[in-house]
Amino acid sequence: MSFIAPEIRDSAIARVNPVAKLIVALTVSLALLLSIDVVSAAVALALESVLLAWSGLSARQFWHRTLPVWVAAPLAGLTTVLYGEDSGAVIWQLGWISVTEGSLTLGLAIALRVLAIGLPGIVLFATTDPTDLADGLGQVFRLPARFVLGGLAGLRLVGLGIQDWRSLGLARRARGVADDGGIRRLFGQAFALLVISVRRGSKLATAMEAKGFGSSSPRTWARASRFGAAEIAVIAVGVAVAAVAIGVAVAAGSWNFVLA
């Protein structure tokens, strides 16, 4: 079972080793976290917008998957504008809430950073199959097999958890216990899902242990995780995006190193 939609699976970025995509996401995120300024985030977001056209996601898939980021970014910016550190001229004030030129700039920088970090991360991992990622972490990064396979098994259960939640809701409606008391119904259904998840996790752990997944012996892998020219090119593009964003911000004089 693949977690990637068929139309995305054949895209160029979906065929890249997930380890390379992970390195790109971490590189861009680290570069943007080193400073809080508008220029570097805006430049990175502009470059990413051009590159995301090659992700293979349709417009509907893109907006559907990234909707939480589009909601979180303005909220983070608004919170910073209203309650962030004041500096510069006061634009608006109501009691202990004030909006200044500095808080507006800081809020815009935070909102752009949330978008510049969140959007490529979601898109990159939307084109990544968990099994391919586990193969890459185990063979390329040489992470412990028990850790990698345990994480993969847990991730595979997420889809089952979503199906269980829907089944629980339908079953409760069929029994007539989901007609009123929305808050109580939510907590009751969540507790039932927790019980089901614990039971399934225990059975899965026992089955994996019985099949030798808990062994400390060297492990073989069913599929080879290859790391070649395409992966190096993707990493180079990610490093270039981070470098250009930092370089433009430094040249514009807006670079504000957070650790300074």
UniProtKB/TrEMBL annotation:
Keyword Membrane attributed: yes
Presence of keyword Membrane: yes
Taxon lineage: Bacteria, Bacillati, Actinomycetota, Actinomycetes, Micrococcales
Chief location bin: membrane
Subcellular location as annotated: Membrane
Parts of the chain that traverse the membrane: 62-83, 104-127, 232-255
Coiled coil: none
Membrane topology: Multi-pass membrane protein
Entry keywords, A to Z: Cell membrane, Membrane, Transmembrane, Transmembrane helix
Protein name in the entry: Energy-coupling factor transporter transmembrane component T family protein
Organism of origin: Luethyella okanaganae
Source organism, top-level taxon: Bacteria
UniProt cross-references to PANTHER family, sorted A to Z: SLL0384 PROTEIN
Matching InterPro entries: ABC/ECF_trnsptr_transmembrane, ECF_transporter_component
Matches recorded under Pfam families: CbiQ
